Amino acid sequence: MIDLSQSASASPLLHSVPTDPGTIWVEDADVVIEAPPDAEVDPQPDAQWPTQAERSGIYGIVTPRVVALPGNGYRMYYTQIMPRPGFPEGANDYCNSTTRILSAISADGMTWTPEPGLRLSAADGGAGECRREGSPPAARVVCGDIVPVPGTAGKLRMYYECCNGTQKVSNSLRSAVSGDGLEWTLEPGDRISDGRSNFAAPRIIFLDDGRCRLYYCERSRGILSALSDDGLSFEAEPGMRIKGEAPGFHTIAFAPEIMKVDNAGYVMYFAGYNGTDQAGIFRAESEDGLVWEERSEPVISPDDGKWGAAKCSEMCVIRLPCTPGEPQRYRIVYEACDGTARDQRGVWRIAGSTSPA
Hints:
By secondary structure, this protein is an all-beta fold. It has strands at 2-3, 16-17, 26-27, 60-68, 74-82, 98-106, 113-114, 120-121, 140-148, 156-163, 172-178, 185-186, 199-206, 212-218, 222-228, 235-236, 252-261, 266-274, 278-286, 292-294, 311-319, 330-337, 348-354.
């Protein structure tokens, strides 16, 4: 959770919440952000489509990341998965798809309107162009986190996954900067890379001593962390943060969402995969942000007949506007897959749930 209404600078206040968001979430009746229908050839970033349109999972919408804006309102950054020339299956053949990062705006955190323009294309994000003949496996940029740049006034930094191959080959975590949250410029170099591993889902928290901690996933291992003085050069911390050992969802753990509860410790929500077939959203708690105790039961599970019938994964928690005298409520938005295609894939879209009143 990134809350610029509490701090416009790089501060622990960005991740602070007055109460624990808890483990009970009530699912929305409607989709938050819908994927383009199969018939679209050139979907515009600000287009909206009815949920009833025909979809088989060619297009997908994933990785929501919400920033509470100064004053009021919210901006959500997310990744749109698309087919590329020669690979018409799109999101159902993810390793050969291409992606771009888009955004939507909301006044209340409930109803969202997609914004025009690209926030970051694969080419502008350093993943290379997609070519028709002799092309390498597809270029992808996948939204990770958006935080203030330390030592600046109003400048933002986006951390994201940058890949020009399948998920079995080496990729990197990179960054881009923006003065308005809409136009982004690639920063040189990698934030995390080693030439052999595949990394995903970067998340930042700022510490009391002025440093920042980057949580990220190394595929096949789990959630790791690294420290930085400037948000650019990171040094890996020893040990694992989350291994993903919850019963039934222990193969892959990634995409942590972390917040600090006032006068208490840290809370993390994270995605837990059982292979590639099923995923749920789990929870862990920590006193120091390093040693985490995982809960054994998911807080959001795949549910037949709903948007996330096969997978409920990468998520973001936001604090909703609060009326004086009423309890604080929260909202979680997440990528959901309905499992209507082979191998439990299908249509990926952004779904949402809200904490009870």
